[in-house]
Amino acid sequence: QVQLVESGGGLVQAGGSLRLSCAASARTFSSYAMGWFRQAPGMEREFVAAISWSAIIIAYADSVKGRFTISRDNAKNTVYLQMNSLAPEDTAVYYCAAGRVTTADIQTYAYWGQGTQVTVSS
To answer: Are 72 and 21 in contact (CB under 8 A)?
Structure first.
């Protein structure tokens, strides 16, 4: 069982930056692939970024490539999402998730956090 707690969301102006964190409870955190997803009002949850347990494999959605950076610190059981050049369309609840495969497929992630709200004003 893995418990995930996101933090770092908030209100930011367009062009600004935020850094999300996701702290995991599991001592086996380093064996999990981690993903970030987001869900805007009235929309389906969508893939943002993923990172393998070793951080060798990293993937991004096209919409965030070049602006967002996913990273992890296995010693701290934490995964991060650095978000730069934020735009109003990035407004959503951001979720971190843990799974066994580094993928954009939401179905492969077994554990989810409660989400953190990111709001970007124009």
So the answer is: no
Residue 108 is encoded by which pair of tokens? Answer: 């492969």
Amino acid at 97: A
Question: Torsions phi, psi of 99, nearest 5?
Answer: -155, 180
- The 10s digit of each residue's pLDDT in 43-95 is 999 999 999 999 999 999 999 999 999 999 999 999 999 999 999 999 999 99
C-alpha–C-alpha distance, residues 12 and 22, integer Å: 19
Q: What is the DSSP string of 52-98?
A: -TTS--EEE-TTTTTTEEEEEEGGGTEEEEEE-S--GGG-EEEEEEE
**Separation of alpha carbons 11 and 62, rounded Å:** 23
Q: Does residue 27 carry a pLDDT above 90?
A: no
CB 111 within 8 A of CB 33: no
Closest-CA residue to 40 (of 24, 63, 16, 66):
63
